[in-house]
Design brief:
Blueprint (H helix, E strand, L loop, with lengths): L1 H27 L14 E3 L27 E4 L2 H5 L1 H4 L10 E3 L2 H21 L8
Length: 132
């Protein structure tokens, strides 16, 4: 009788584990979209006419040299991604490009407000999104 109860418990644990796996797989596919200017945005930003950036590195980081000269890429990345850049550069399509990491405080306090003000002005002119 004990053999059956252990077997039954094992089956219940297996079934519960499979159900949990299905639930976790379903929720992990849900994505949150972050736009430039949002506090949770990580990725490439365009400096353009924005205020002078503050960089975390004085020289560009290049993981693998590419033939020719690629324009530098300005990125906001998570601290652990910056520390292990060789491992994470592919996520940003930046392994063969010179990369400058922008300071998080500069991004949040200077760039994001500037970017949002430019988008508002752009939208008000009737050329941006939301106008037909």
């Amino acid at each position: 009788m004990k053999t059956i109860s252990y077997f039954t418990k094992a089956l219940w644990c297996l079934a519960a584990g499979l159900a949990l796996t299905v639930v976790l797989a379903d929720t992990s596919s849900a994505r949150v979209t972050m736009a430039i200017g949002d506090p949770g945005f990580f990725g490439a930003i365009s400096i353009g006419n924005a205020p002078q950036p503050v960089f975390l590195n004085s020289q560009p980081i290049i993981v693998r040299s590419a033939p020719g000269h690629a324009a530098p890429l300005y990125l906001r990345v998570r601290p652990n991604e910056q520390k292990n850049w060789r491992r994470h550069c592919g996520r940003y399509n930046a392994c063969n490009r010179p990369v400058y990491f922008v300071d998080h405080n500069w991004y949040q306090q200077t760039y994001a407000p500037y970017y949002k003000s430019q988008r508002r002005d752009y939208d008000r002119r009737g050329s941006g999104r939301g106008h037909r």
